[in-house]
Amino acid sequence: MSTKVTASVENPELVQKRRAQIVRAATKLFSSNGFNNTTIKELAAEAGISQGLIYLYVREKEDVLLLVLQQVVEEYAVEIPRSIVGVKSPLECLVRAIDAYCRVVDRHLAATTLAYQATKSLSQSRRNSIQESEMETNAIIGEIIRDCIGQGILRSVNVDILTYQIVFAAHGWALKGWYFKPRIGLDEYISDTIDIILNGLLTPEGQDLFDSLPDGLFSPV
Amino acid sequence: MSTKVTASVENPELVQKRRAQIVRAATKLFSSNGFNNTTIKELAAEAGISQGLIYLYVREKEDVLLLVLQQVVEEYAVEIPRSIVGVKSPLECLVRAIDAYCRVVDRHLAATTLAYQATKSLSQSRRNSIQESEMETNAIIGEIIRDCIGQGILRSVNVDILTYQIVFAAHGWALKGWYFKPRIGLDEYISDTIDIILNGLLTPEGQDLFDSLPDGLFSPV
Amino acid sequence: MSTKVTASVENPELVQKRRAQIVRAATKLFSSNGFNNTTIKELAAEAGISQGLIYLYVREKEDVLLLVLQQVVEEYAVEIPRSIVGVKSPLECLVRAIDAYCRVVDRHLAATTLAYQATKSLSQSRRNSIQESEMETNAIIGEIIRDCIGQGILRSVNVDILTYQIVFAAHGWALKGWYFKPRIGLDEYISDTIDIILNGLLTPEGQDLFDSLPDGLFSPV
Amino acid sequence: MSTKVTASVENPELVQKRRAQIVRAATKLFSSNGFNNTTIKELAAEAGISQGLIYLYVREKEDVLLLVLQQVVEEYAVEIPRSIVGVKSPLECLVRAIDAYCRVVDRHLAATTLAYQATKSLSQSRRNSIQESEMETNAIIGEIIRDCIGQGILRSVNVDILTYQIVFAAHGWALKGWYFKPRIGLDEYISDTIDIILNGLLTPEGQDLFDSLPDGLFSPV
DNA sequence: AATGAATGAGGCTTCATTCAT
DNA sequence: GATGAATGAAGCCTCATTCAT
Hints:
4 copies of one chain form a homotetramer.
Chain A: H1 12-33, H2 40-47, H3 51-57, H4 61-83, H5 90-107, H6 109-118, H7 124-150, H8 159-175, H9 177-180, H10 186-199, H11 204-212
The first copy, chain A, binds a DNA duplex through residues 9-11, 14, 39-41, 49-56, 60-61.
């Protein structure tokens, strides 16, 4: 990671342990109440430590947020590559990557939502550090897509847009959880999503209709 | 709208005018600095009025946020139906709706981003009011999709998921503007998005490969 | 003054009035308890205003200290020149200046003591601003001394050292008030001080003795 | 000393050694940053020991300050008498004492300044203990002066005021070091100071003028 | 004796909200 | 209707002191 959070405690195991405590508590509170509405006092209480102790492991409150967000993007960066290790077929890679992404999100619902809420609360440099990590993960997906296109498995579509469509589909499970969770399970969400994205929507008749639409249909109003 | 913001000023035209001033300023400041990092003092300065005056048109700070968010969702609720008025073909409706949604987002980049950041800062009742509006707009899109499916234009896919895929595509223009804006124009974004969503991705060969993938490929790890 | 303290309140009369309140309270509390041991809460209470109000007239606590110290040095810079206005004889000027200095100190016992205690609590730039004021006042005294020497009234002594001897004599009334106050009145303090400084100490016989002291008597140990 | 600082460590040599470490570090930090702006953590780092260790040799932070100040006043109390040991002539005693005082100050510039700043940070009992030491040293000088007067070497002036004039002259070398140091050396400072104090200022003509000044010149305004 | 992690009280400062004009 | 000075409740963070090792 480019942006390091500094601790004034030397012992690295202790640092890791304490920070894990803090991040766990922070993820919970930040995502349910928001970063700004969570006080250090509450955070300390949730983590089972004193207020002052937090500041031995973090220089300011914003650092806690950074640690939380770093944890998620790092898990993305680890889990998605791991899900396609050893898989030859690019198509299978793509399917597995989508699947893995959705499942990582499911394990980090709170933190994922948080990333959308709280990035504005980070200073520019810290925000950059998070966005770079995000782009790295996206690059992996983009690569898989390019492979598929190269092998004639996928049509030659806009890779960036498709990448983000996949990313949003995964994040959507967290962002709109309040809508989906009561209606559908994760497995179904994943398979239906993959179905829509890969198989497209139009029936043969629909395809004819679509082709006959005037070209400039959706041009500037 | 179910949740009304109350003003202590009688003259309704004045209320409208002042609130417009306030909302304009708030949209700018909230979306660039975040809701919590914007002070009433800054807001008043940006709106060209005094701090005290704000409280004649709003009961508390959160109300300002509600007004801002209401404005966006209302514009969604107005613009999207308008874009399909008089259009017979459900497929054309769908295409026009996606196009319209993206363009409304483009006109409200700041506010759209804000909706993702700041909803957590709303009290539950206010949050519900926004989410209901969002669902109303989504319902329109869902209806169009169902029409398409009913007429055999689209395959029978999961309507909810597809709806949100479209919604995310539109919102994505705002949420990831920092990525897309330097790389692509709005028109291209819209047409490529529609292409991917409607036409699907798989080539005929890709289709064969996909069909031969083991069924339980992406089941729980 | 070079270093200005900024207020966020416009009305200059109000600023002056409130700052006077604050400075009066601060002088009292700072000099009896020290700058660091005085809390803003105590200060507000003593001034009869709320904590928050202080920050409409001052950017940070240190500014309050600066205001207090500025007030004293400014009074020095005003009172001492005023005491010699229109006086022709340089010797009379000198006597009057010493007298005036001591009396200003007497009117600002607390603040004078404070200046010795708290200058270290000022940031460098603020400290400089105070030291410059001090030097301006000292320059006036130095000028008078030079006049006296020029006219053959005083021996040609080290002007800087004599200046500070006078300054210390004045400040001493505040600094060692705990010693002098119970033993002697201000008038007597002033006249005895002037007597010692101007008339010297040695009797004719003492003079002879002094002249016969070995030259290197007080050289480095 | 009346006020003792207690240590929880038995071995007196160790106590002395550790305290010396602590006092050395404290003198440096307190006088450059002020007592209140120096943390125990910094102090420990400067002294090369741990925070906790300090509390084995001192009951609270204020004790450290007391130790520092005690060290200076004790050195005054030792050095000044030593400088006049065996000297018969009271005038020579006086000159030597002034000289010695200035030189002790020069060796303890930081601590001397500190005494003026930080005495207010001491509790009353500790402050008294320091002031008593100061008075003891002053008493020695007062005695010498009285001797001189008794032997007809000095005029019969106010002994207290003269004593403090001498004390201030010595302290001034530290207090106004920022002014004198770049302009003059210690030796010159001492000899010029003694010259002014002992020989007085007025020329014969000045004397006449002075005698002809109206008596109530410097009476209350 | 020594360490340094841990505690928690309390200070400075901000800011939503009120109120006198 | 409008202003902006005034309030006071917290929030973040620091740091003297303690305590387990």
